[in-house]
Write a structure and sequence with these properties.
The chain is an alpha+beta fold and 117 residues long. It has a single domain, classed as Alpha-Beta Plaits (2-Layer Sandwich). Helices cover 28% and strands 35% of the residues. The strands form two sheets. The protein has a four-stranded antiparallel beta sheet with strand order 2-5-1-6. Strand 3 and strand 4 form a beta hairpin. The longest helix is centred in the first third of the chain and has 20 residues. 15% of the residues are buried.
Length: 117
Amino acid sequence: MRYALLIYGDEQSQAGMSEAEGAAQYQAYNDFTKDVVDRGLMQAGEALQPVSTATTVRVRSDETLTTDGPFAETKEQLGGFYIVDCKDLDEAIETAAKIPGARDGSIEVRPIMEYPA
């Protein structure tokens, strides 16, 4: 089953990292990505631009409304994601726990809805 592993963290604390801390985190993500690729779990994954670049779109009464920024003000922002193919939820949770962002943020594990071809 495929799962989305959604990485949430505090962008401001990330921005406050020293160069060495940022390099260590970058390497930890590279190591994690290599691990899920080597295990055959990796389907896709991307880091996202900062939340300040987001635009929220709503349609009300057939009118498209846009707002700069995310849908809601939150302490943690969606910073990236992985799509993995795991045998079950337990393996997805085990994999999510290895994402570096789980140490100071949170990882939301969501099964992907599969539709017949």
